[in-house]
Amino acid sequence: MSEAAASTNHEVDLGHLMAYDPSHHLAAAPSSRAELREECLRKATELAQAVADALFSLPATEGRDGPVVRLPPPANRLPREKHLPRPAPPTKWEAFAKQKGIVNRKKNKRTWDEQTNSWKRNYGYDRVNDDRDIPIIEAKMTDEPGVDPFAKRREEKKGRVDKQEKNRIGNLKNAAKVGALPSHIQLAATAIPITGTKADLPRKSKKEDLENVAGMASSATASGGKFDKKLPGEKPLKKAGKHRKFLPVAEGKGMGNLEKQQNDKILNSLLAKNFEEPLDVSKAITMYKVKKDNNRRKDKKSSSGSDKLKPGKKIHKKSSKKSA
Q1: Are 55 and 169 in contact (CB under 8 A)?
Q2: Res. 297: pLDDT tops 70
């Protein structure tokens, strides 16, 4: 079969930049691995040439970097690498909303704050009706005497936060039973493999895994766990990471002068690449001044010596007698 006839059997899918030969088969079993490799390389070269020929047959337009072609839509549907993600079970609120027929409506993210006369966020930092922006709280008839209303608000907020965290952990536990944990949570815990992979096998958590997870959690603070309370029997982290130290932006004394020193060191190393000693600017200025002073002294000495060698002028005294 000629090469032109063989190329007609190639099926090209330019949407995926893919080509294959459905009628290809080996005439005989290869005698060695090298022979099999040569046959695979030969067939791969033919398929790559078929893709290139199909690309150059498309209408092209001139772009800034050269000719550009628009690929057609893919003709074949490729299978997924991994299975479809399992649907997560509904949370308590989602189940309650579905039961009561509550539909989520899109709300505005900002609200007008009458205290500051400005638009503020509904939640988060600098939100509307923030407890820290309220200087005075009106007393009610039901308030108990001697109770700090500001401390009471802080306790109520803390209780709401704890309740939300408890509900979140409960939802994660329900999702873990079904095997639909989010991938970022599975990656954060070393003892929990990602679902759908080879490591997703039921196994018992070892003591070392739990110690490693506890050590990673304790050292995940800004101080590297230096000021955190240690649990009874907790071992220090084997490989403690070092936090990067950056030079201060503002120039000044102490740490603020390190950036200037570092830049001077780099400049000296670049300027003195072909010299034995690094360039010292102050030393170079001093040497220049000394050399200049020596040249000035030499010029003075030479000028004074040349004056001595010159013939002296005759001094003519004026006679006191006047001619008659």
Answers
A1: no
A2: yes
